[in-house]
Amino acid sequence: MKIKPIHIGLAIAAVLTLTLWMSARHRKDAFVESLDIPAETPAPAPVSTDPKQAALEATPEAQAYRSRLAFEQQARAFLRDAPKLDANARLERARAISREIDRREQARELSAGDAVVLRIGLIQAAVLDDSERVRQSQAIVDRYRKQTAERQAAFQEQQRRDTQFQKYKAREAQIVNEVLAMTSYPGGMSRDDYLRVRLQEARQSIYGTQSPPPTP
Hints:
- By secondary structure, this protein is an all-alpha fold.
- It has helices spanning about 5-25, 50-55, 60-80, 85-105, 110-125, 130-160, 165-180, 190-205.
- Helix content is about 70%, strand content about 0%.
- Helix 5 (about 110-125) packs antiparallel against helix 6 (about 130-160).
């Protein structure tokens, strides 16, 4: 099979990005380097004699933070150890990390961008055949591109059906034209500040206490 240079470049870029992504977290991950904790199990909280500190470390947010650090450590350890593993062990560990990526992505604990980088990194570490690496990496990129396009299309359709949003966009265009035509603004405000105030008033008038729907 002929491998296109652009595909090879994609795979190489993904690996380089993964390396940078992991390196950027090296300092904050240092205290868990010696741990061997499954990704789904939060690292134990450091022992503290301060009741307030102990209570803080026991919060769900602190536990989630330690769990994320442990997961990142597990991913780093696999990328480091993959060449030393036999084929079965390598694939099994890659599948386990992939399942954890699925879980964290569904729980919105991992962005799509980070998930893509991690998945391609797993492919680079677990798959020995170069052409298969490229094929699987391209499949990951294509899948996420499709998902992004589908989410964007669904969001645009939701906006099209949202009468409040359509009303706001029409009012927004009207306000922008009015403000741009002005040569001075109340209270000595700048044009941008006055425009911001007018748009905020329009949002409050149309949406009340609610906010416009967020972009995907």
